[in-house]
Every structure is written in structure tokens, then in C-alpha cells.
Design a protein that fits this description.
Layout lengths: L7 E5 L4 H13 L4 E3 L10 H13 L5 E6 L3 H7 L7 E3 L3 H9 L5 E5 L5 H13 L6 H15 L1
Parallel strand pairs: 1-2, 1-3, 3-5, 4-5
Helix pairs in contact: 1-5, 2-3, 4-5
Length: 152
């Protein structure tokens, strides 16, 4: 993403609500606009509903990138990656976040609210937003992703 401060769409489940709110504040401090699809509290919700909202908005091109959070990040990454054109990356560290952008052009970052602390989550978001896609041979591989989507 050439503009790390472009609008980011974000969603979570109840288990990651607090981390989502902290990351929203972090993004706003950085100058990004944030579209929050919910939930807007800690009452129990079904994470696929929120994963679907974010994945559809990114897949449609309305938002260049999204962030999803749930307790572990596993469920949200499974939901998001069901959508054609979505490359959701569950990241637990900076290296994974960087490589998800450099080599995979990840367009949704997934974090686990129960397994990733606030400071690390902010650093992961920062490097994920600032790391460009390298293209080249990596684009050739992403083209193979698109062929899978077409044949499924």
C-alpha cells in the first residue's frame, strides 16, 4: 500500500474487542481513517459474520486493506481466506507480517486478541502497513492463487 494511512476496515469478535479498540486508536493517531464494522461491545457474537463483512469490503476493492481479530486469529483467517482475491495473513510476529506483505501481498492482517499483546500488535500493524509488495516472481505466484479461485 503506497499510503499506509489509507482507510482501513476493521472487525473482530467479542474475544478481541479490547485489542480492536486499542488498534483503532493507534491507527487514528497515525493518521489513518478507520471503518469499524463491529462489534461495538463485548457481548458474544459469531466471528464469521464480522470476518465476512471485512473480507467482502476488501475483495470488492472498496478498501485496500483490512484487519480482523478474534481470540486466536485462526477462525477469522479461515473465514477471510474463503473469499476470492483475499490473502489474509495470521501474524504473530514482525517477520511474518513483513513477509506476508513482501511475498504474498496480504490484504487482510489477522491477529489473535488472546495471544498477541497490545504493544506487539501495534508494531505488527505498523510494519504490515508500511511494507510494500515486492512483485516480480511473487506476483507470478499470486497469479496462481487467482487460477485456483477461478477453477474452484
Amino acid at each position: 500500500m503506497t499510503d499506509p494511512n489509507a482507510t482501513i476496515v476493521i472487525g473482530c469478535d467479542h474475544a478481541a474487542y479490547e485489542l480492536k479498540e486499542k488498534l483503532k486508536a493507534f491507527l487514528l493517531r497515525r493518521g489513518a481513517a478507520v471503518e469499524d464494522v463491529g462489534p461495538h461491545g463485548t457481548a458474544s457474537v459469531d466471528y464469521p459474520d464480522y470476518g465476512k463483512k471485512v473480507a467482502e469490503l476488501v475483495a470488492s476493492g472498496r478498501y485496500p486493506r483490512g484487519i480482523l481479530l478474534c481470540g486466536t486469529g485462526l477462525g477469522m483467517s479461515m473465514v477471510a481466506n474463503r473469499f476470492p482475491g483475499i490473502r489474509a495473513a495470521l501474524c504473530h510476529d514482525l517477520f511474518g507480517a513483513i513477509m506476508s506483505r513482501k511475498h504474498n501481498d496480504a490484504n487482510i492482517l489477522v491477529l489473535g486478541g488472546r495471544v498477541t499483546g497490545e504493544t506487539l500488535a501495534e508494531e505488527i500493524v505498523k510494519v504490515w502497513l508500511e511494507t510494500p509488495f515486492e512483485g516480480g516472481r511473487h506476483q507470478d505466484r499470486l497469479n496462481l492463487f487467482d487460477r485456483i479461485d477461478e477453477s474452484a
